Amino acid sequence: MNRDTSRDLYDRALGVLPGGVNSSVRAAPQPYPTFVQKGDAGRVIDADGNKYVDWVMGLGPLLLGHDTPETVQSAVQKRTSEGPMYGMPTEVEIEHAEFIARHVPSVEMVRFVNSGTEATVSAVRLARGYTGREKVVVMQGGYHGAQESTLVEGDGDGTTPSSPGIPASFAEHTLTVPFNDEEAITEVFEEHGDEIAAVLVEPILANKGIVEPREGYHETLRDLTADHGALLVFDEVITGFRVGGLSCAQGKYGITPDLTTFGKVIGGGFPIGAIGGRTEIMEELTPAGDVFQAGTFSGHPVTMAAGLETLTYAAENDVYEHMNDLAEQLRDGLRDVVAERAPEYSVVGTDSLFKVVFTRDGEAPRNGADVGRANVQRWNRVFRPQMLENGVMLSQNQFESQFVSYAHTAADVEETIEAY
Ligand code: PLP
């Protein structure tokens, strides 16, 4: 069979996909992007037959790796004859919502959507509808999807995902504060307390560094929002059903948010997002409520089946333990190599997330700190290509997390450490 090589595919892609890739993230550190032909557990094989240990895992959704267990595959097979059911729930959608509600104590009701972006847009709209207020507080270096209501104005050096020319009306209603800075957010509440609909925050800032909250920070957010009648919205699109195990980061930090957004792993590899929270708030989404929210593909039976079966499998097996153990071995191993060979890097992470970041001062970036254009370029032009050459696939941008999946093995970890 005469197969297209990556070079041929790139030429075709450039004609129909902006930049030749399916993201705005600059690919092409190597001459052209990697065209994956086939997944194989924790690895991928490209169009030229090269095999890589894959730590991108689709940027997170592939909790169980590329080859999903038989139970997930047969659950999906059973649903492929059903299309989306606009305005009509299916039993599998109810079951999926019940699963989330059972495992996340703050969630009583769930609305499924189709991406993490849609989930956070909807959560912001819901918070605005529920409180009758407009302002939303977000964290510097936080990320909630490609949408204007929470995307910050970038610094133009490619280190912050941004939307040029955010309309003044959006910018005015989005207040940005540094993560982990209690003073800054307290001041914002002192000045705007009665105008703030919500604080939207990732429990762990996963998109610049992997920055964990300082002790007491989430409690401060909880107290400030409660005292001022604003909602606390945890964006768990990355962390949900991954970090902190089944009850997600709420389990890790012991904070009860008003609303939570989910995405990635809860779709079992298919497109998904979800908003969950207390009945009183979620009922704003009913015909009697103030907030319109609907989507053609929401609650698609195939996605529901894949997601529910994946989460059930994870609940019944040692999925999180395995991933967290491997990630710890990987982080420890990488820290040793990095300390010896490249002290300008730092290895950060928690649970099954990890990242190798460039730092200016030998410390991991904090508060979503900007690590500089030169370092981004270095990642794109030197570091990532070198790793690819050595058979390890990392995210296309140094800010993006790397994900350990259940399919990864000790051999994947060893090869990656050797590749550095
Ligand atoms: N929120 C967070 C915390 C994310 O990390 C992401 C994506 O990585 C999103 C929202 C957007 O999700 P999606 O890419 O599914 O639209």
UniProtKB/TrEMBL annotation:
Gene Ontology, cellular component aspect: cytoplasm
GO BP of this protein: protoporphyrinogen IX biosynthetic process
Domain of life per record: Archaea
Single GO term (MF): glutamate-1-semialdehyde 2,1-aminomutase activity
Similarity section: Belongs to the class-III pyridoxal-phosphate-dependent aminotransferase family. HemL subfamily.
HAMAP family per the UniProt record, alphabetical: HemL_aminotrans_3 (MF_00375)
Record protein name field: Glutamate-1-semialdehyde 2,1-aminomutase
Annotated source species: Halarchaeum salinum
Lineage of source species: Archaea, Methanobacteriati, Methanobacteriota, Stenosarchaea group, Halobacteria
